[in-house]
C-alpha cells in the first residue's frame, strides 16, 4: 500500500503546485475545491504504473498523470451539472457550491491547466485529444442517442469511461518510451478496466446506499440515465459478471505488453481485479 501511496502523493503534490500557480485566486480556490477534495486517483496511478512497468521512472510521467486527472475532474464538473447532482465525493459538487457559471469556468480552467502539462509531447497531445473526442461523443450519446441494446451500452461505456482510462495508460507507456504496439496493448488493458469500472458503477448505483457511495445512489433511475441495469434486462449479478469478463480481457492485454513481472505490473493486475469488487 505504501508503494501506491508514494505515487499518489507525487501526483497530489504536482496538482497542488499547478493549482497554486493559477490566477486569479478565486479560480484557484474553485479548482482546489474540485481536485483536492478527494478522489481515488486511479487514472494517474495507471499512468505512473504503466511507465514504471516499462522500466521508466515515475517522475518522468508525473506531469502526464496530473494532466489526465485534471481532465477527468473537468468532466466530473460537467457530469454533475447535467445530472443536477449536488454531492461529489461526500462534499458539495462544484455547481452546488459555486453556481453554474463558476463551475463551467472551473471545468474550462482544469482543461487549460491539463493541456499545459501535455505541451511539448506531440504523442501525448494526440492521445488526450482523441480521448476527449471519445468522451464528448459518449456524453452526447447519453443525452440524445441513448443506447437500447447491450452492445450499444458497451460502446457508450467505452467512450464515456474507457477512453480516459486508455489515455492514462497510453500516456504512461509514452513516458516509458514504448513502441506503438506496446502503447496499444496498455491502452486496451486500461480501456477494458474502465469499462469494467463503469459497469460496476452502474451496479452500485442500483444496489448501494448513498452513504456508502459518497454520492447519491439511485441516480441512474431518477435521471433515466442509460446504465447497464436500465438498458438491459440483466440483474446486478449478471452485470457484475459482465464486468468480470472485461477484467479478464484487460489482464490478457496486460500480458501482451510483454513487460516483466514487477511491482508495477502486479499493481496493474490488482487494479483490474479490484474494479469489479469495489464498494464505492
Automatic annotation (TrEMBL):
Gene3D superfamilies: Farnesyl Diphosphate Synthase (1.10.600.10). Its EC number is 2.5.1.-. One of its GO terms (molecular function) is transferase activity. InterPro entries: Isoprenoid_synthase_dom_sf, Polyprenyl_synt, Polyprenyl_synt_CS. Keywords: Magnesium, Metal-binding, Transferase. Its cofactor is Mg(2+). PANTHER family: GERANYLGERANYL PYROPHOSPHATE SYNTHASE, SHORT CHAIN ISOPRENYL DIPHOSPHATE SYNTHASE. Belongs to the FPP/GGPP synthase family. This is Polyprenyl synthetase family protein. The lineage of its organism: Archaea, Methanobacteriati, Methanobacteriota, Stenosarchaea group, Halobacteria.
Amino acid at each position: 500500500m505504501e508503494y501506491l501511496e508514494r505515487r499518489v502523493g507525487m501526483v497530489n503534490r504536482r496538482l497542488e503546485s499547478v493549482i497554486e500557480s493559477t490566477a486569479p485566486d478565486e479560480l484557484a480556490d474553485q479548482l482546489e475545491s474540485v481536485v483536492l477534495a478527494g478522489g481515488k486517483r486511479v487514472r494517474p496511478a495507471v499512468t505512473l504504473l504503466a511507465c514504471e512497468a516499462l522500466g521508466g521512472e515515475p517522475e518522468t510521467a508525473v506531469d502526464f498523470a496530473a494532466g489526465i486527472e485534471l481532465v477527468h475532474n473537468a468532466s466530473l464538473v460537467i457530469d454533475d451539472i447535467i445530472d443536477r447532482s449536488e454531492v461529489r465525493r461526500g462534499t458539495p459538487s462544484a455547481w452546488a457550491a459555486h453556481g453554474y457559471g463558476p463551475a463551467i469556468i472551473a471545468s474550462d480552467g482544469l482543461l487549460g491547466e491539463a493541456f499545459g502539462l501535455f505541451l511539448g509531447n506531440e504523442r501525448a497531445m494526440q492521445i488526450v485529444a482523441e480521448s476527449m473526442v471519445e468522451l464528448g461523443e459518449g456524453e452526447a450519446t447519453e443525452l440524445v442517442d441513448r443506447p437500447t441494446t447491450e452492445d450499444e451500452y458497451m460502446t457508450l461505456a467505452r467512450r464515456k469511461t474507457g477512453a480516459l482510462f486508455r489515455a492514462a495508460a497510453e500516456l504512461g507507456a509514452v513516458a516509458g518510451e514504448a513502441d506503438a504496439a506496446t502503447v496499444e496493448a496498455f491502452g486496451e488493458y486500461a480501456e477494458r478496466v474502465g469499462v469494467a469500472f463503469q459497469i460496476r458503477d452502474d451496479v452500485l448505483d442500483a444496489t448501494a446506499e448513498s452513504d456508502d457511495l459518497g454520492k447519491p445512489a439511485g441516480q441512474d433511475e431518477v435521471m433515466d440515465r442509460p446504465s447497464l441495469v436500465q438498458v438491459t434486462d440483466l440483474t446486478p449479478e449478471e452485470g457484475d459478471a459482465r464486468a468480470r469478463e472485461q477484467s479478464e480481457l484487460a489482464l490478457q492485454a496486460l500480458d501482451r505488453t510483454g513487460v516483466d513481472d514487477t511491482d508495477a505490473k502486479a499493481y496493474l493486475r490488482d487494479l483490474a481485479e479490484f474494479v469489479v469488487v469495489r464498494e464505492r
